Amino acid sequence: MCTIRRFTLAALALGISSFNAAAATPNAIPHDSAPLGKLPRWAQPLAYHLDFRVDPQQSAYTGSAAIDIELKQAADHLWLHGQDLTVSKVTLTDSAKKIHAAQYKAVAQKEGVSTVEFGKTLPPGRYRMTLEFSAPFNERLEGVYKVSSQGAPYVITQMEAISARYAFPGFDEPSFKTPFTLSLTVPENLVAVANTQQVSEQKLDNGWHKLSFAATKPLPTYLVAFAVGPWDVVDGPQIPATQWRAQPTPLRGIAPHGEGPRIKPALAQTPAIITALEDYFGFGYPFDKVDLLAAPDFAAGAMENPGLVTFRDYLMLLDANSPARNVRSSFNVAAHELAHQWFGDTVTMPWWDDLWLNEAFATWMQAKITQQLHPEYRADLELISGANYAMQSDSLVSVRKIRQPITGTGDIETAFDGITYEKGAAVLNMFERYLGADTFRQGVRAYIKQHQFANATADDLVAALSKASGKDQRFAKAMQSFLDQAGVPLVDTVLRWEDGKAVLHLKQQRYLPLGSTGNAKSVWGIPVCVRYSVAGGDPKTQCELLDQAQGMMLLPGATASSWYMPNADAAGYYRFDMARDDLARLTGNLAQLPDTEQLAYADAINAGFRRGDLDAAAVLAAAPALAQSGTREVATALMPTLKWLSKYEARNEAQRNRLTELARKMYLPRLQQLGYQRRANESQDDALLRASLAQFLALDVKLPEVRQALLLQGDKALEKSADGQLDLAAANPDLLRAVLSVATQEQGTPAIDVLIKALGTTSEPAQRMAILSGLGAATASANAERARNLALDPRVKVGEMNTVLLASREDGEGREAMWKWFTVNHEQLIKRSGDSSGGRLPDLVAGDSCSQSEADRLNAFFQPLLPQLPGADRGLAQTSEKTLLCTALREKQDPAAILR
Ligand SMILES: [Zn+2]
């Protein structure tokens, strides 16, 4: 799944110790309690035949699930999953074709655990269990759900993580991989698609037809997918046969009615991605087709269902007027989901504690493929920015480990976070460098080959990498130290001259920011690589595995004036703190460093500030040199820290002016040079840089001249044409969000009125997101309240709710108003977005808080809600800790340093 960074899912710790308990005594009739975690192994599914009868015009659907099962021991019942299902009939047919009537009972409603009681003891053996059921279409984007696009209803599925239990009765756990054979009976004017190719069509009476699909390769329940509606089906270029795959593979786009042509750019880029992945894995794309589906409403960013990958519509529906940001994301997310066809779909983790095997790998692989096919996208820098972002969360005491034990369903939902994705990817990148790219690939290939169409754990991966590299336990322990231990290492470095040799002394501890209550004493196995200058030659690199609290490294050829970068190529997942003189020499040579290392340097400045080693003056002194970089990612790297300073640290006019003037000086000339309109043949990167600069200067720093320029575009965009429609295309699509935000802030009610009205008539997804961000940015209190109320309004889709709410708590006043609104409306908000989004709720409504009183009220309000909101305990702990760290930083950093 792609969650689109900074969009964390989450969800209740059950506090029930039986969560992982599952097995029963062999060869005895089990007398067990409902398994809230893993299911017992004595009843296993072997294959599913699922028949659904779906009409999107209705509010519910019916189905039958014929599940071939094996009872490994005599039993009078079995456990399975099913949530909000009405099961009308259950039978078990034994191998002698004798039919036994049975009964389905929901047991643990909240977790979706059910039982089938046989009414007698059945001997071990194979059975076909058939369940006839019906269910409502889900309204919270889980399981089988219904959405509408331009007035027409569509049905789509989203099973990950544990929503297949809403869709059909089954063994909803990733360790149970079996073939699925689907048929869909739908009104004959509608299109239906599933994971595999359609093999037959049968006309039925009364305007229905039944479409049958080929059996899938063995899959877990969370990868089953189908969709029904008046879809446009667009043939893409075939994916030609390769040395890894004997037959060409058909490729199609599935788009809402009338949107078909806009899915073509996404189709065009797909064959190259697939073949590049095949070359890496040495393993042909293993499924019988590729369909890319643009979903009119979706909870995450995209989902890697084999053969039927589903995406949020804005990632798939592109044209010349699409924001550059969406065009870039379309490629990145497609590369991520297609990488999952191997990592996750071909080889699957047996349990959610190894979710990182899916998500860290897909994130890392996405960067590798993007770097190969579009080097100008600078996926190498994206990976480092992702790591730096993850380090921020990894500094919290309440953070998850990459392999966090699962103690409740909430832990499953909250596992889709920056630690699993971005930290995981960075850790893979670090150990790839340590082993060498070729050796690492050899290990990955062996892992895929050995575990194809089955399950594998972190230990299996480490074993494959150890075997390929010939490395011993020291490597395995080093890798495990990052997987099974939370936190980001801080490596202290000081260069000394000893006996005429340059010796770099290293110490490691856990990085903890000001105000943290954590324990710094931790040891990782860190592959530390240092780049340093030598007299009259190219810089050299020296690497060492630091797996003790202290260590040292010789830097041969270094001279007294040598500078060194403690994280060569920024490939290591660690922060560094250099001796003052060493840092000064590095700063003096910043321009010589590659972009990757300049990003690591920017992170060191930010990390030093948050730890209290550097003050605001040091940040402001470092900023201009980075800002003048010709590389967008480097030039904008300190923007979040500058934003923090102006939002929380500046206390008086003089301090605010200093920050504004600095931002103007550093960034305005660049924006003016780029201009506010797109230029013919400009690079995608220029468009992205313009958007970042405009957003920062107009909305964070509030430079009047930039706001004025955007307002001019806003006036045009909000002008109604003869047909009464807004001309949103009159604004630069890359700037539309910022343009509409400035417009609602400057024009107030008239702008709010027309934008709310436009929501009812605009279906273009990028424009809708801009409208919602613009509405959320409203500053006048009555207007801001109207914007927030839209989150509960049917004109705003469920997947769009967060956009408007996040935008509406940007400033201090907004946070106060947002909090009041939430305390009044929380029941409706939770009802609409679903329990499984409970983990992200504390951040959604109180993220960016920065005072003790905000932390107190957050805790007081959420504590009683925790039992009903899976994952909210972790979300609450993290948001509350972030609030207290922000408070401590604000108290301990001296604002007067802004003027020094
Ligand atoms: Zn993913």
Describe the protein's topology.
Blueprint: E1 43-53, E2 60-71, E3 75-81, E4 86-94, E5 99-108, E6 113-122, E7 125-136, E8 143-149, E9 152-158, H1 164-167, E10 180-187, E11 191-194, E12 198-203, E13 208-213, E14 226-229, E15 232-235, E16 251-255, H2 264-268, H3 270-281, E17 290-295, E18 302-303, E19 308-312, H4 313-316, H5 324-340, E20 347-348, H6 355-373, H7 379-394, H8 409-414, H9 418-435, H10 437-451, E21 454-455, H11 458-469, H12 473-483, E22 489-498, E23 501-510, E24 526-532, E25 540-546, E26 550-554, E27 564-565, E28 575-578, H13 580-588, H14 595-611, H15 616-627, H16 632-635, H17 639-649, H18 653-674, H19 684-700, H20 704-717, H21 736-747, H22 749-759, H23 765-776, H24 781-789, H25 801-807, H26 812-833, H27 841-846, H28 852-862, H29 872-892
Helix pairs in contact: 3-5, 3-6, 5-6, 6-7, 6-9, 7-9, 7-14, 9-10, 10-11, 14-15, 18-19, 19-20, 19-21, 20-21, 21-22, 21-23, 22-23, 23-25, 24-26, 28-29
Q: In a few lines, what is going on in this structure?
A:
With 900 residues, the protein is an alpha+beta fold. The strands form 6 sheets. Strands 3-6-5-4-7-2-1-10-13-12 form a 10-stranded mixed β-sheet. Strands 15-16-17-19-18 form a 5-stranded mixed β-sheet. A 4-stranded antiparallel β-sheet has the order 8-9-14-11.
**DSSP E strands, number:** 28
Task: Let me know the average pLDDT.
Answer: 95
Reading side by side through the largest sheet, how are the strands ordered? 3-6-5-4-7-2-1-10-13-12
Give every kind of bound small molecule, once each: zinc ion
Q: How far apart, in Å, are the first and last alpha carbons?
A: 47 Å
Fraction of residues in β-strands:
15-25%
Helix/sheet category: alpha+beta
Biggest pleated sheet:
10 strands, mixed
Poorly predicted regions are 5-18, 20-25
Report the helical percentage: 25-40%
Q: Could you tell me the radius of gyration in angstroms?
A: 28 Å
Shape: globular
How many helices does DSSP assign? 29
